[in-house]
Design goal:
By secondary structure, this protein is mostly beta strands. It is built from 5 helices and 31 strands.
């Protein structure tokens, strides 16, 4: 899920779809329903919780479980909401100079984030959600990695592609390397089995020293320090457990090549902070109309939430921070000739965060009119280790308020029965999602030098799209071709990954299990088995995604 709070620039999509249908008090098919213009900006804001800053030593990793469910009855056009997730930033609280140089999107366009730009300098974001840039709509949300290494000049969200881009990133900005030899990572997002509704996906970002820290030794330019922190995504699902991919440290240090003020200030070298937990509502369509007396009403899509046995909707739970001894220290020992660790996060190096819920907070439309009146229908709460929604008896449990009436500069949530018939709001249909463009890759450059060793192969996912992929030797994958690794560095990294593939199985336990709930099931088509002879040291790289 792309995150960034108010720094996001919404993709404004206004769609008008003319359909016939019957509304309240109108005979079916007797007249054509009057269509209202579909607007963008129906819900801008957050359902969020605060996460406290951990003790200093617990900044080498973060994990949590997030609920997965169909927020919509069917995919919609111009719709973007992230399911519960977080954003991770380098801890630069002791630094008071601008982290983003001139020429970055953040520095040139977001003065409110200055003068230091700590929270828009570099981020690891991503997670579950729906995005306006999704090419292949799905009622079940998808999972995307996302982040920015350079003040939002570039956003990276899979091994090869940027956020919302169907053409691959230039090789110097790819940033994310495929680590798993068992899981495909589609640029449009990881898919889940059909009928998923309220199960949990474990997410963890762990700082692993898979490579050595070094300085750029090119004589023609000043040295650029690069740290050894390879932020690695671990997932915990019912049918897949373990590391998926990692951010190459050079991705974070690259910005300092032309701005040495920030040497050593990126996520390749600094401890990290989890900046909170939230569902971010970025681009939501809505309709607006007035009654005969001039009172303004509005309607947003029906948003659905699962209910647990106690009638709550669990959004996020078991937020945990880790010290380097949880896994990083044992990986560093391994890199220098020590024994291969089992990959499990050491429980005595974990710190459980106790969050606090923020009230539901939304605005609507171009004037950012506040939305109110949620108290009797839905409210946020933290119960034990879980951030939840509770549904008081006045509203419909598990259904977020759809209708609002403007009263004295605010729009108050109201039931459908209180919407005047003449507004025709209850008769409206939101525009459905349309199939987008295929994700393509070039046949030259980093994708074919070196060539893959086996393929192409194809699988079809639960969102109806078809994936084409090929097998590359790990160090020959496209995302590693612009790092300038010498033969010795490549050999050392390749050996490490071969040992990881041999020892770290997708059925082993890595992050702590959830304290409650059931694990989600990834789309079985994403789970692959290496061909004969490629069982260790090779990874499946997607080269195309399309819906035929």
């Amino acid at each position: 899920m792309k995150r960034g709070r108010s720094r996001w620039i919404p993709r404004l999509i206004a769609s008008v779809l003319l359909l016939s249908g019957g509304g309240r008090g109108i005979a079916q098919n007797s007249v054509r329903t009057e269509r209202l213009p579909q607007r963008s900006g129906g819900l801008n804001g957050y359902i969020s919780c605060n996460v406290p800053r951990p003790p200093a030593q617990y900044q080498a990793g973060v994990s949590f479980y997030a609920g997965i469910w169909p927020l919509l009855e069917s995919p919609l056009n111009g719709f973007q909401i992230g399911l519960p997730s977080t954003w991770i930033i380098p801890d630069n609280k002791d630094f008071n100079q601008p982290l983003c140089p001139p020429g970055t999107v953040a520095r040139d366009n977001w003065p409110e984030r200055g003068p230091v730009y700590r929270d828009v300098f570099q981020t690891i974001e991503g997670g579950l959600g729906y995005w306006g840039s999704t090419q292949f709509g799905s009622a079940i949300p998808k999972y995307r990695m996302n982040g920015t290494p350079d003040g939002y000049n570039h956003e990276v969200s899979s091994p090869g592609w940027g956020f919302g881009q169907t053409k691959p990133l230039p090789k110097e900005f790819m940033g994310i390397a495929q680590l798993s030899n068992r899981l495909l990572v589609p640029p449009d997002g990881l898919t889940f089995q059909k009928l998923t509704n309220g199960e949990l996906l474990g997410n963890a970002w762990m700082s692993l020293p898979l490579t050595e820290a070094y300085r750029d030794l090119a004589a023609a330019k000043p040295t650029t320090p690069t740290g050894d922190q390879c932020w690695t995504l671990f997932l915990n699902a019912a049918n897949f457990k373990g590391p998926v991919a990692y951010w190459t440290p050079e991705t974070w240090s690259k910005l300092s090549e032309r701005y040495h003020t920030i040497d050593g200030r990126g996520l390749d070298a600094r401890p990290a902070l989890m900046a909170g937990g939230a569902m971010e509502f970025n681009t939501v369509p809505y309709f607006e109309a007035a009654d005969a007396d001039g009172n303004v009403y509005s309607r947003v899509p029906k948003l659905l939430f699962p209910l647990d046995p106690k009638g709550r909707s669990v959004l996020m739970q078991d937020v945990t921070m880790y010290a380097s001894r949880a896994l990083s220290d044992s990986v560093r020992s391994w890199l220098h000739g020590g024994s291969v660790p089992n990959g499990r996060f050491a429980p005595n190096a974990a710190w459980t965060a106790k969050g606090t819920a923020n009230p539901v907070s939304f605005r609507q439309g171009p004037k950012n009119v506040p939305l109110t009146g949620f108290e009797g229908m839905v409210k946020t709460t933290v119960v034990g280790n879980a951030f939840c929604l509770e549904w008081p008896t006045e509203g419909t449990k598990g259904v977020f308020p759809e209708y609002y009436k403007q009263v004295e500069g605010k729009r108050v949530a109201i039931p459908a029965a209180s919407v005047p018939v003449e507004t025709k709001l209850t008769e409206q249909t939101f525009a459905p999602a349309q199939t987008g463009q295929p994700y393509t890759s070039p046949t030259d450059s980093a994708w074919s030098h070196p060539w893959p060793v086996r393929g192409p192969f194809q699988v079809t996912l639960t969102d109806g799209s078809t994936i084409t992929y090929a097998w590359y030797r790990f160090v020959d994958q496209p995302a590693l071709q612009n790092l300038g690794l010498n033969a010795a560095q490549k050999a050392k990294l390749q050996k490490l990954v071969e040992q990881m593939h041999a020892r770290w199985k997708i059925t082993s336990e890595y992050m702590p299990p959830p304290t409650g709930g059931t694990l989600a099931v990834l789309d079985p088509a994403l789970i692959v088995t290496p061909p004969r002879g490629l069982s260790v040291g090779y990874v499946p790289i997607i080269t195309r995604q399309e819906r035929k």
